[in-house]
Structures are given as structure tokens and as C-alpha cells.
């Protein structure tokens, strides 16, 4: 689960992590009011109007309706903040992460202007190779960290944190000195890291990224930006975080799948997949790629899916405009093959079938499942193995 920058900063603020003064706005007038409050509190006319979408690269992005305007605008005065907000609200921001379709801006963060001496990069994430939280830091803040990793990987420090002990003082100091910080700023950086790490663990984050991490002219360390992603499997422990979900920023198909307790991720390919079990789903996607096509989705209906859930899953798959074929691959253990067959037949009869459909069934009640499909009168192609199924659907879609 992802949240907006302003929400991430609220969580960091609650954890004691220094962040700029800011407030979210949902209308241009609210933007003016919040900008005026910041001007009175800080004594500075400089405020920043920041688009809030679930994508990075906002500063370098451009609005389709206003090509001269980026997703982050520094202005002087409350009136200028309102003018920028009027252009941003309802406009489509295109960044390197949104794709050419962009995203419509419906929220803005109004933030105080800061005295920027240096911009650094900092993130906490899970290294799945070691099973440990890793702190990454770089002097190349404010840039595309992916580009830095590709062209100058030596500029990114990585520190593994032992879960039994947490982030140690010597590790925090090593990061601070590696970022070429000294004196009180280095000490503040160590304190910043300690609070960031504790927030990451407490909130069950999968990523907590600060880019840029600001060093002010006075030597303070402040999170100028914040990106937070969370482990969906831990959200039951954090109802206040789950309440921050912005469904406008999420894929409608993935939202619908979540309501049916289905594991679904939309992809860029053309062959839809409906499988039970995450490992089998990954193998199915791999063999589709092996035979020269690309999967349109990851979809695990689970071991205990009902006929209704199978029908819902099939409907979700068929909504993909790029779909050219569907491969159903089921190994019946807890999940019975006849249940899958009935769900597929019901869905096809309800929504129609405009693309080739290949079904491979194996396991519990497999003969009954195949019999139901064969006698359905529908244009469904059976397959005897996963290899056979993948070859057939790839050939039929080409």
C-alpha cells in the first residue's frame, strides 16, 4: 500500500522525525489560506506548492494542460500559491513514473520554503537476500536514485541492520560521516536515522524513502520529501494507516480483486492468467514468457476460492483492454477442479468470450472439471500439461 507525501510526513512527524511545516489543500482557496498561515508563522514569503500523486519525479514532471508548469512550484506570497493551485487542480501530471497517461492532481501540499545547503538521499527498505532492513544513503540526493545506482553505484552506501539489535550508534555515525557530515550536523543525522529506523519497524513499512534529505544552512537535518510504502499483510495492525488509502490512485481492477480477497497485480502483457497458488502463478507467467508472449496479470485465486470468487476473477481479467487470450492453470488440492470449471463456465456465459481461452486442470475432481468444460458448449481449449497450455495460448494469440 502506498500513501501520499503529506500523509508520510504526518507519520514521520509523529515519530519525531524533523519535517517542514506544511498542510494539505483540496481547493485553490485552501491553498491560499494555508500559504498565508505559513507566511505568518515563518516570516518568509516563500512557499512551495507540491502536487500529491502516487508517483515520483513530480518536480521534473509536466502538466498536459500547462506544459510550462512542473508538479512542484516555488512561489512568493499566498496569492501566487493560489494561482499555481488553480492550474494544478484537476490537471494531469505526467512524470517518469506515471507513464504518458499521467495522473490527475486532486490534492496539493502547501509547504514552507527551506534554506537548502545540501540535498542527500536516504531510505530504509527490506533486503530480501539477507532478510534484514537495509539503510541506503547517498550524497546524490534530489536525483533519480535509479540512475545513480546504474551509473555510479559506489556513491550509494548500504548498511545492514541486525533485527536482534536494531540500528546501532556506530552504524548511524558511519552513515553520517559517509555523507561528509561533521560536528553537530553529524550528530543530528545520527539521531534522525535512529528515529527513521524505529518508525520503519513500528509502522511495518516496506519502504521509507527521503529524497531529498535536506541539510539546511544552519546544519539541521530535515526530510524535505517522504515516500512510504507498507506491507499489506500487516495493515490489520495499523487501521489508522489503512484509512489513508487513496482509491483514486489505485488500479480499479486491483481494488475490485481486493474486495474478493484475490491476489491480483496488473501487468503490461496480453495473456491473462488465473492460477491457484503464488508459486504456480509465477511459474505460469514464466512459461508464457518462455514461449514468446507476456502475461497481462498475476492472479492467485487462492486454495479455498468459491465459485463466485472464480467468476469475479475471470471478470477482472477480461476487463483488460490489451487482453488477447486467457490461460487458466489450476492444480486442485484444497481447490477442487470442478469448482474452477463451474466458475469459468458461469463467467463466460455472463460476460462472453471474445479471446481464446485455454484451461489446464489437474488434481482433485479433475475428471469432473474437464467433463463440465467439455459439455459446456463453449469455445474452451483443454490442455494436458502446463507446457502444452502455454504453447497453445501463445500460438492462438499470435
From TrEMBL:
<keyword id="KW-0436">Ligase</keyword>
<feature type="binding site">
    <location>
        <begin position="57"/>
        <end position="59"/>
    </location>
    <ligand>
        <name>ATP</name>
    </ligand>
</feature>
<dbReference type="GO" id="GO:0000287">
    <property type="term" value="F:magnesium ion binding"/>
</dbReference>
<feature type="domain" description="ATP-grasp">
    <location>
        <begin position="9"/>
        <end position="239"/>
    </location>
</feature>
<dbReference type="InterPro" id="IPR013815">
    <property type="entry name" value="ATP_grasp_subdomain_1"/>
</dbReference>
<comment type="pathway">
    <text>Carbohydrate metabolism; tricarboxylic acid cycle; succinate from succinyl-CoA (ligase route): step 1/1.</text>
</comment>
<dbReference type="GO" id="GO:0004775">
    <property type="term" value="F:succinate-CoA ligase (ADP-forming) activity"/>
</dbReference>
<dbReference type="InterPro" id="IPR013650">
    <property type="entry name" value="ATP-grasp_succ-CoA_synth-type"/>
</dbReference>
<dbReference type="InterPro" id="IPR011761">
    <property type="entry name" value="ATP-grasp"/>
</dbReference>
<keyword id="KW-0816">Tricarboxylic acid cycle</keyword>
<comment type="similarity">
    <text>Belongs to the succinate/malate CoA ligase beta subunit family.</text>
</comment>
<keyword id="KW-0460">Magnesium</keyword>
<dbReference type="InterPro" id="IPR005809">
    <property type="entry name" value="Succ_CoA_ligase-like_bsu"/>
</dbReference>
<dbReference type="Pfam" id="PF08442">
    <property type="entry name" value="ATP-grasp_2"/>
</dbReference>
<feature type="binding site">
    <location>
        <position position="114"/>
    </location>
    <ligand>
        <name>ATP</name>
    </ligand>
</feature>
<dbReference type="GO" id="GO:0005829">
    <property type="term" value="C:cytosol"/>
</dbReference>
<keyword id="KW-0067">ATP-binding</keyword>
<keyword id="KW-0479">Metal-binding</keyword>
<comment type="function">
    <text>Succinyl-CoA synthetase functions in the citric acid cycle (TCA), coupling the hydrolysis of succinyl-CoA to the synthesis of either ATP or GTP and thus represents the only step of substrate-level phosphorylation in the TCA. The beta subunit provides nucleotide specificity of the enzyme and binds the substrate succinate, while the binding sites for coenzyme A and phosphate are found in the alpha subunit.</text>
</comment>
<feature type="binding site">
    <location>
        <begin position="333"/>
        <end position="335"/>
    </location>
    <ligand>
        <name>substrate</name>
    </ligand>
</feature>
<dbReference type="GO" id="GO:0005524">
    <property type="term" value="F:ATP binding"/>
</dbReference>
<comment type="subunit">
    <text>Heterotetramer of two alpha and two beta subunits.</text>
</comment>
<protein>
    <recommendedName>
        <fullName>Succinate--CoA ligase [ADP-forming] subunit beta</fullName>
        <ecNumber>6.2.1.5</ecNumber>
    </recommendedName>
</protein>
<feature type="binding site">
    <location>
        <position position="225"/>
    </location>
    <ligand>
        <name>Mg(2+)</name>
    </ligand>
</feature>
<feature type="binding site">
    <location>
        <position position="211"/>
    </location>
    <ligand>
        <name>Mg(2+)</name>
    </ligand>
</feature>
<feature type="binding site">
    <location>
        <position position="119"/>
    </location>
    <ligand>
        <name>ATP</name>
    </ligand>
</feature>
<dbReference type="Pfam" id="PF00549">
    <property type="entry name" value="Ligase_CoA"/>
</dbReference>
<dbReference type="InterPro" id="IPR016102">
    <property type="entry name" value="Succinyl-CoA_synth-like"/>
</dbReference>
<feature type="binding site">
    <location>
        <position position="50"/>
    </location>
    <ligand>
        <name>ATP</name>
    </ligand>
</feature>
<dbReference type="GO" id="GO:0042709">
    <property type="term" value="C:succinate-CoA ligase complex"/>
</dbReference>
<feature type="binding site">
    <location>
        <position position="276"/>
    </location>
    <ligand>
        <name>substrate</name>
    </ligand>
</feature>
<feature type="binding site">
    <location>
        <position position="111"/>
    </location>
    <ligand>
        <name>ATP</name>
    </ligand>
</feature>
<keyword id="KW-0547">Nucleotide-binding</keyword>
<dbReference type="GO" id="GO:0006104">
    <property type="term" value="P:succinyl-CoA metabolic process"/>
</dbReference>
<dbReference type="InterPro" id="IPR005811">
    <property type="entry name" value="SUCC_ACL_C"/>
</dbReference>
<dbReference type="GO" id="GO:0006099">
    <property type="term" value="P:tricarboxylic acid cycle"/>
</dbReference>
<dbReference type="GO" id="GO:0004776">
    <property type="term" value="F:succinate-CoA ligase (GDP-forming) activity"/>
</dbReference>
Amino acid at each position: 500500500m502506498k500513501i501520499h507525501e503529506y500523509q508520510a510526513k504526518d507519520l514521520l512527524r509523529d515519530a519525531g522525525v524533523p519535517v517542514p511545516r506544511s498542510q494539505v489543500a483540496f481547493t485553490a482557496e485552501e491553498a491560499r489560506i494555508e500559504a498565508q498561515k505559513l507566511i505568518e508563522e515563518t516570516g518568509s514569503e516563500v512557499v512551495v506548492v507540491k502536487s500529491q500523486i502516487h508517483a515520483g519525479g513530480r518536480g521534473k514532471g509536466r502538466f498536459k494542460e500547462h506544459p510550462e508548469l512542473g508538479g512542484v512550484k516555488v512561489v512568493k506570497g499566498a496569492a501566487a500559491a493560489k494561482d499555481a493551485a488553480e492550474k494544478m487542480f484537476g490537471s494531469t501530471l505526467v512524470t517518469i513514473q506515471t507513464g504518458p497517461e499521467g495522473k490527475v492532481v486532486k490534492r496539493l501540499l502547501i509547504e514552507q520554503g527551506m534554506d537548502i545547503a545540501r540535498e542527500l538521499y536516504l531510505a530504509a527498505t527490506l533486503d530480501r537476500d539477507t532478510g534484514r532492513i537495509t539503510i541506503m544513503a547517498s550524497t546524490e540526493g534530489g536525483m533519480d536514485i535509479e540512475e545513480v545506482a546504474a551509473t555510479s553505484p559506489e556513491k550509494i552506501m548500504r548498511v545492514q541492520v541486525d533485527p536482534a539489535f536494531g540500528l546501532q550508534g556506530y552504524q548511524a555515525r558511519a552513515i553520517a560521516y559517509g555523507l561528509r557530515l561533521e560536528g553537530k550536523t553529524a550528530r543530528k543525522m545520527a539521531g534522525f536515522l535512529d528515529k527513521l529506523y524505529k518508525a520503519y519497524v513500528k509502522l511495518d513499512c516496506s519502504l521509507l524513502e527521503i529524497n531529498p534529505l535536506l541539510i539546511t544552512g544552519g546544519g539541521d537535518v530535515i526530510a524535505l520529501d517522504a515516500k512510504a510504502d507498507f506491507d499489506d499483510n500487516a495493515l490489520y495492525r495499523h487501521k489508522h494507516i489503512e484509512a489513508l488509502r487513496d482509491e483514486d490512485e489505485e488500479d480499479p481492477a486491483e481494488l475490485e480483486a481486493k474486495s474478493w480477497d484475490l491476489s491480483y497485480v496488473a501487468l503490461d502483457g496480453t495473456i491473462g492468467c488465473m492460477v491457484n497458488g503464488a508459486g504456480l502463478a509465477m511459474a505460469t507467467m514464466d512459461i508464457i514468457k518462455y514461449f514468446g508472449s507476456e502475461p497481462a496479470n498475476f492472479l492467485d485465486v487462492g486454495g479455498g476460492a468459491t465459485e463466485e470468487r472464480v467468476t469475479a476473477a475471470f471478470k477482472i481479467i477480461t476487463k483488460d483492454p490489451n487482453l488477447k487470450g486467457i490461460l487458466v492453470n489450476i492444480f486442485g488440492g484444497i481447490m477442487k477442479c470442478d469448482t474452477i470449471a463451474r466458475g469459468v463456465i458461469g463467467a463466460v456465459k455472463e460476460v462472453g468470450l471474445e479471446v481464446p481461452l485455454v484451461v489446464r486442470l489437474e488434481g482433485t475432481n479433475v475428471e469432473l472439471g474437464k467433463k463440465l468444460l467439455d459439455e459446456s458448449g463453449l469455445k474452451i481449449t483443454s490442455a494436458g500439461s502446463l507446457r502444452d497450455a502455454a504453447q497453445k495460448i501463445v500460438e492462438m494469440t499470435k
